[in-house]
C-alpha cells in the first residue's frame, strides 16, 4: 500500500483550518448597496421581481444609508425614479429633481461616513427609456447625450455625491464628465466608470425597479455578450479619460472579464451583481432549491475571487450583517 504524501485535504480538516487557509475573504467595506428612490412615494414600494428590494421614500432611504454606515458598508449607489419624464430626460438636471434631492438628503444624513455614489444616466428620466437622447433615426445620439451627462454630473456633485457612476456606455463620457467636474471646481469628486457594460438579459428586474419605459434593447451602445478583447479597449479608454474606479457589469456571467480587467487595471476594479442575478438566486431559494445564505455568499465570493476589489450587490446590507455575526 502506498499513500499519497500530497494531501490538500489536510488544510480542510476543521473550520478553523479552513478559515486560516482561505484565499479570499469578504468584508463589509468592499460592498456597495444599490438603492432606488421614487419621487412622490409615501410608503416604500416593493419590487416584485426583486423580493426584499424596494423603491424607497426619502425617509426609508435615509434609514438605509444610516444602516449602511452602521454595517460598515463601502458605499451606496443611488438611482432616482422621477414622476415625470420627457424625451430629453430634463428632470435629471433639476437641482430639486428626485435623484439630486436624494443625494443631498443622504449626504446630510451620513456626511462622509459612507461613499455616496449616484447614477449618471438618462434611462430613468427619458420617456422612451433609452440611456441617451435619440436622433431622428431613433439612435442614441452619443455627443448630445454626453453633453447632458456632463451637466448631470455637475448637478450631482453640487448635491453632494462623492463619486459618480456614468452607466450609459456613450463614447467619451468619462472625459466629458471629468472636465465638467474640474471646471466646476469639483476636483475631488471621483468617477466609477461602467467601462465594460454588456447588453444583458439579466437587467430584466431593474426595468421594473425603475419603471422603465424601454421598448427594444440597448445593443447599439452596450457591449455584445461574446466580446472579451473589446472589454480591454473600453477599460483602456476610460482609464485614459480619467476613471478612478473601473466597473464590469454584469458580474456572474462575465467573471472572465472581471479577471482580465483585474489583471491589467492600475485602478480598483468593481463588479455589479445585477438585478437578474439577485432575482435568480432569490427565486431558487424561495422554491427551496438552494440554500439561500450559502448561495449568496458563494456568488459574491466568486466575484471577489475573480479579481473584483469591490462588489455592488443588492445583498450588501444583509451580507454585511452575516459577516459581523460570524466574526
Ligand atoms: C442604467 C443602468 C441599468 C442598470 C444600472 N444602471 C440598466 C440597464 O443598463 O439596462 C442595471 C442594474 C441591474 O440590473 O441591477 N442606468
Write a structural description.
- This protein has helices at 15-21, 58-71, 98-110, 142-159, 173-183, 204-209, 229-240, 255-264, 275-286, 292-306, 316-325, and strands at residues 31-38, 45-46, 54-56, 75-81, 115-120, 163-166, 190-197, 245-249, 269-273, 310-313.
- It has 327 residues and is an alpha/beta fold.
- It has a single domain, classed as Aldolase class I (TIM Barrel, Alpha-Beta Barrel).
- The longest helix is centred in the middle third of the chain and has 18 residues, at 142-159.
- The protein is globular, with a radius of gyration of 20 Å.
- It starts with 14 loop residues before the first helix and ends with a helix.
- Ligand PBG binds at residues 119, 121, 123, 131, 167, 203, 206, 218, 274-275.
Index terms:
alpha/beta, 327 residues, TIM Barrel
